[in-house]
Design goal:
The structure holds two protein chains of two kinds.
Chain A lengths: L1 E8 L9 E8 L4 E5 L6 H8 L7 E6 L2 E2 L8 H6 L1 E5 L10 H10 L5 H14 L15 H13 L5 E5 L7 H16 L3 E6 L2 H7 L2 E6 L2 E6 L9
Parallel strand pairs in A: 3-8, 3-9, 6-7, 7-8
Antiparallel strand pairs in A: 1-2, 1-4, 4-5, 9-10
Helix pairs in contact in A: 3-4, 3-5, 4-5, 5-6
Chain B lengths: L2 H14 L1 H36 L3 E6 L1 H6 L8 H10 L3 E7 L1 H11 L4 H6 L8 E6 L6 H7 L5 E6 H44 L1 H9 L4 H41 L9 H31 L3
Antiparallel strand pairs in B: 1-3, 1-4, 2-3
Helix pairs in contact in B: 1-10, 2-8, 2-10, 2-11, 8-10, 8-11, 10-11
Classes of the chains: A alpha/beta, B alpha+beta.
């Protein structure tokens, strides 16, 4: 589903490569933690998958897309197969919960009939049925992240990228969010989650890819956050 | 593409930025208004050329001696001047008007002002030869040949007067076009700036749109339409301004010339000038919007 083949990325403004010779292979339906300290290249990793950046060397594949080589006009198609969740939720403050989720479908031209049908379904899936008409600022952090996840998932992406989705949440709420991500993973969606959260990684026992200074230093099938760290 | 979505984005965008929107509309309106008035000037000049150039004459006024004594231009030197004019290659026709006929014509022209007619005496009006040329622009020939000749008091070239008048209108038109050009520049910069501000205030939305795979059209069309809608509103206000100017000022000014300058018809504003202004506005705002998005807003 995701394949990076000897990928390097050097930013013009930096002397050290952000990623260097990274090769990672993620199968369909896998759940993968991407860990490492700040500046280790996690964000660059995710940005390459979205074609927010182009690798300096190497090949990036997502589903059937040759991400680095594809023409610009096909980028929207790539991004429609990837859902994204962030630490800061990135909800639209002037839209209700349902409108925030519907927005993701509206802007890719889905018919209103479809939107009216799927939005309540996905809100129920993330446990927000009954809160469709609330504004984001009326919700708790955990609930806001659920809205963001609903928005990322509403178009049934093949891949869900989560960039420190629990970074702003307390441990209990984080746990709930992880349960939700697991549930989404069980529908067959590949989940790639960048995180700093030891306890989550340790308790989930999923595949762990660790980056350090732009290189993969560990890739464990059922890993923990780190030993002796 | 969902029209309702794009439309609501446009309305929100324009409302969020209401002061900028108003500035944008007003500058566009002023620029287009100037352009519109300039275009009306052009049309007026064209109409006048059609109306008058065919009728333009060179009038050869004859001396007091002839005016007083030669009723049908049979004596000398009137007869020979007339003969010479008639045989001239450039001349189409020559008509003699004696003092009494001149007085009759004077009374006819000024029948609306009896006190003027009351004061005028036939003795004050000279007899004249009305010379019609094949090409009114070549009146210079007559002027040179007959000025100062015996029996000729003065040669009056209507073409000269019209030329002066046209150059006055042309100057007015040029001023309008220059001002229109500069305000258009201001309008373009305002549009570009508004789009940048608009894109900045909506960067979260646009970011999300890009992330979920909206096409370039979807992310940028609302901004483009915002510019075009403002342009259209500006054109509407500008057309309104030109119309108001026509009814409140131009009509009266044209009427004051006693029909020398033809009236501007309302249909000319509506059918001829308005579509041009609207078209110019749409094209300029769309192109400005497109270029701004290309240059400054990352997709």
């Amino acid at each position: 589903m995701i394949r990076l083949d000897s990928v390097s990325k050097v930013y013009k403004t930096s002397t050290r490569p952000a990623l260097e010779g990274v090769s990672v292979d993620v199968d369909k339906g896998e759940f993968v933690f991407l860990i490492g300290p700040s500046g280790s290249g996690k964000s660059t990793f995710l940005r390459l998958l979205l074609r927010e950046e182009v690798p300096s060397r190497g090949r990036v594949m997502v589903s059937n897309f040759d991400v680095a080589k594809m023409p610009r006009r096909k980028i929207p198609r790539l991004r429609q197969t990837i859902g994204c969740v962030f630490q800061d939720f990135r909800l639209l403050a002037n839209k209700t919960v349902a409108e925030n989720v519907a927005f993701a479908l509206e802007v890719i031209g889905k018919p209103k009939r479809t939107i009216d049908k799927v939005v309540p379904e996905v809100l129920e899936l993330v446990g927000l049925d009954g809160k469709a008409d609330r504004m984001p600022n009326e919700l708790s952090g955990g609930e806001q992240q659920r809205v963001a996840i609903a928005r990322a998932f509403v178009n049934r992406p093949l891949v869900l990228l989560a960039d420190e989705p629990t970074g702003n949440l307390d441990p209990d709420t984080s746990q709930d969010i992880m349960l939700l991500l697991e549930r989404i993973n069980r529908t067959g969606t590949t989940v790639l989650m960048a995180t700093h959260d030891h306890s989550i990684v340790d308790s989930m026992r999923r595949r762990v890819v660790e980056l350090h200074l732009g290189r993969v230093i560990r890739d464990d099938k059922r890993g923990v956050y780190g030993v002796g760290r | 593409m969902r029209a309702s979505f794009v439309f609501s984005e446009v309305v929100t965008g324009l409302r969020r930025n209401v002061t900028m929107t108003i500035a944008m509309i007003l500058t566009t309106a002023i620029s287009l208004g100037m352009l519109g008035v300039g275009l009306l000037f052009v049309r007026t000049i064209d109409k006048m050329k059609v109306n008058y150039l065919d009728d333009v004459e060179v009038t050869v006024y004859l001396t007091e001696d002839i005016s007083a004594n030669d009723k049908d231009c049979t004596g000398e030197p009137c007869a020979s001047i007339r003969q010479s004019l008639e045989s001239n290659q450039a001349v189409e026709s020559v008509v003699y008007e004696n003092r009494d006929e001149a007085y009759e014509r004077f009374k006819r022209i000024f029948e609306g002002q009896p006190e003027l007619v009351e004061l005028a005496r036939p003795q004050a009006l000279p007899a004249s030869l009305h010379v019609k040329l094949f090409d009114p622009a070549r009146s210079e020939v007559i002027l040179q040949e007959y000025s100062g000749q015996a029996g000729v008091a003065k040669i009056d070239d209507q073409n000269k007067f019209l030329d002066r008048f046209f150059s006055f209108l042309n100057a007015g038109r040029n001023v309008m076009f220059v001002v229109a050009l500069f305000t258009a520049l201001a309008a373009v910069l305002l549009i570009a700036n508004t789009i940048q501000v608009s894109a900045y205030t909506r960067r979260t939305e646009v970011g999300i749109m890009r992330l979920v795979g909206a096409t370039r059209w979807y992310t940028q069309l609302p901004f483009l339409l915002e510019a075009v809608v403002a342009g259209v509103l500006g054109a509407v206000v500008g057309i309104g301004g030109v119309t108001a100017l026509k009814f409140l000022a131009l009509d009266r000014a044209m009427a004051a010339t006693g029909g020398i300058v033809p009236q501007i018809e309302f249909f000319e504003v509506l059918v001829v000038v308005a579509p041009i202004l609207l078209g110019v506005s749409v094209v300029i705002s769309a192109v400005t919007g497109y270029v701004t998005l290309r240059l400054y807003v990352r997709h």
